[in-house]
Amino acid sequence: MNPAPVANGAAAGAGVGMNRLGGRLWYAAAGALIVALLAVAVSYRSFPDIPSSSPGSCGCPAARKYTGMVEDCCCDYETVDAINEEVLHPILQELVKLPFFRYFKVKLWCDCPFWPDDGMCKLRDCSVCECSENEFPEPFRKPYSGLSPDSMMCQEGKPQAAVDKTLDSKVFKRWVETDNPWTSDDETDNNEMTYVNLQLNPERYTGYTGDSARRIWDAIYKENCPKYPSEELCHEKKVLYKLISGLHSSISVHIAYDYLLDESTNSWGQNLSLLYDRVLKYPERVQNLYFTYLFVLRAVTKAADYLEQAEYNTGNPEDDLKTESLVKQLLYNSQLRSACPLPFDEAKLWQGENGPELKQEIQKQFRNISAIMDCVGCEKCRLWGKLQVLGLGTALKILFSVDGDSHLNQPLQLQRNEVIALFNLLNRLSESVKFVHEKGSSVEEVINEQSPSTVQKGASKTNLKGLFGYSQYTWIGWD
Question: What does the record say about its membrane topology (predicted)?
């Protein structure tokens, strides 16, 4: 390649020597330009702009707040975020919209066994309401006597509050009726049970606050799941605490994600200040969210053979085939199996001579937590509380033997409702992990730059104190 011509056409007589000199200068300049471009590229790669609205946009390890192994688990944060983003979240989002996983059997109206229920929330979004029969496919229609007279009035035509409380008997084909020893509700008792369309009753802000909401979490943490000093807390009780804490964090994430910004205009959106105040501000809550996610994921993968062979029949062949296909994609995904083959190692628990007694004690504590869900004064909060606690109870049932015995020779048996709760819980946790991963760094940067007076704009201004803080303030929506 010839060098660029010299100005004014001079140096024609310089001949070869000048050409050689020009060549060396050209290559030197080109080399300098390449070095400069590489430097810019490296600089850009090391310090990229991270738009808050772009999911998974942060590729810089230094920008991650949570790295390394998730405590007490067998996967690291980076892997969890990648697998959740690429594999689990897309599959779960499709699954929970299909008829089999969309309808949940629940006893919504029941007496609180611990104290008089005086905490009904004030917003209409608190209630779970019945949909008209013609909104649903024919196989799901059958006569229904109506709502409890205690049911709150729901807004006419509001899809967020609408509920289908009926299902065809075909849905129960080949599903066993067994009770879960980890939960208080008798899953074999169909009296006063209704069917709820979860897609029409999203987990979101409901306005459920005050003494009733605070009392729920006080009872859970102080009486059944206390946080002892680390040196006094055995590993098994630590697991129970982390599970409840992770579930609590996930609930808070969903409230912040779908928040009533303006009641007068019924405007909903994300409350990122609330997300920071309730979850991101406390690293332990984020860590416990990831822990609970991996714990439930381990239960699903451990029960893979059972779940693959289960019959997902709702009377709609096309939807049912799609359900079976998606379940298999999730259970036997090669990316998941290679990246995180053992999300949680349950074999480390219940060791020692006190193992059986300890298991019974923790099972009793979790059953009490399940019973406390009957005391939740908000119908929609009670719905999601019961579903997610049953999902956790199902995960515990899968991973651990029950009633202090090994039951090694007994095959796993799950109710249809348990499977619905398990997958919907995993989806809830997946959504929470994804939202925290996407928004965490950018929200913390913005919040830290703001003055204290603007941090709580549009959210609760209650003072946050205490080691873990759950009993120190009211969590907007559901304590």
Answer: Peripheral membrane protein
